């Protein structure tokens, strides 16, 4: 079908389709439109956002079935074909012959591209490789000097994921200050966050930032706006003296302080109970990956705090309680906390 018709038909399923490039629309018309119509007949809505445990299992099943069908001997070869140049032509031929696009997305009501990226994240052995050594950091600087922001190329050279190398470079290139935040730095951070939120607000034609306009220090705006993802690398640039992760952590601490109005959280008996509740709730989610957890929904185990605050508390809990946690995946960490740490905390309480 022609481009305009494809865009018009896709709009029923994807509200933001007007912002998608012509090239992507052509691909979606081929890979997604028929699937979307089938899901509509079944009364199933197209989804975005976090993948559920059920969807992750379906992706795993689809990948395993395709490997069995095609004879390709590993998920890494299937999903990261460029890492195997000697087998590339054969793998591409097998993927075409056995309809890779259709098979990988079977039973999942999402755009094909999102399913493919999720599969790559799930099956990439380079995703969880621990801290960067000093040698790796130097390599990263050299590769960036040669290839710029071609993170795909750099990730292949370093055997790390695209996101990992991009974020690590953002961190090491910054003029990092590891000391306490000064008043000037904190104000630059607040101003940067406000500027980003104002811009988003104008783009969305909302008036939710009216309270920010009234005061240069008041951070109170719609709770949903405070919780939203922010472009931290952009904010890092505006702050100038801290890298993106420090900016994010500092903002979350400011936000938590504002929202809890000075309550003492995670202290004494209340602290023990909060840890117990957090471990139990995380165990109940049966999540295989931290990205599957809705941290905002868990906020009430500690208090009226942002989801990012809960996630930070979980990080401290695993680092202090789980031996060799860097070598464990998310579900193994949760199992250890539930089986080993939880009884200890309950006895202490």
TrEMBL record:
Any one GO BP annotation for this protein: termination of RNA polymerase I transcription
Record GO terms (molecular function): chromatin binding
Annotated ranges, domain HTH myb-type: 124-161
SMART domains: SANT
Alphabetized PROSITE patterns for the sequence: HTH_MYB, MYB_LIKE
GO CC annotations on file: nucleolus
Domain Myb-like as annotated: residue spans: 124-172, 173-255
Region forming the signal peptide: none
Name of the protein: TTF1 factor
Organism: Origma solitaria
